[in-house]
Amino acid sequence: MALRKFVIEVGMGVDQHGQDNTRAAEKAVQDAIHRSCLCGLREVAGLKNPNDIFVEVLIGCPNPASVDKERVLKALPFGQKKIEVHQGGLLGKTLFVPELGDKTDEMIVANAIVTVYVP
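RE: above sequence
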């Protein structure tokens, strides 16, 4: 079955405390998908079941090996899902607040590109 690109969205997520690349990646995906209304899935593409879409997620974050890919994909409400995580994003200085789970004074910034394909 041939897939066609339906929408591409970009998002950014920040974990200011706790230095959690996965949490920053989750926020980046949520940021991207909360900007889109996919009403065209039914009205234009004619899909009856939203799980018939294919969603590809590309994440850039400072420590890709630490990302729990399955947890990030749970941010997507439906569809067949695929994720790739690459070196990227940013590390920046913030406040060190051990009571908020901080291990260092760094914040994690992750970027996401979410592409939705339809059959």
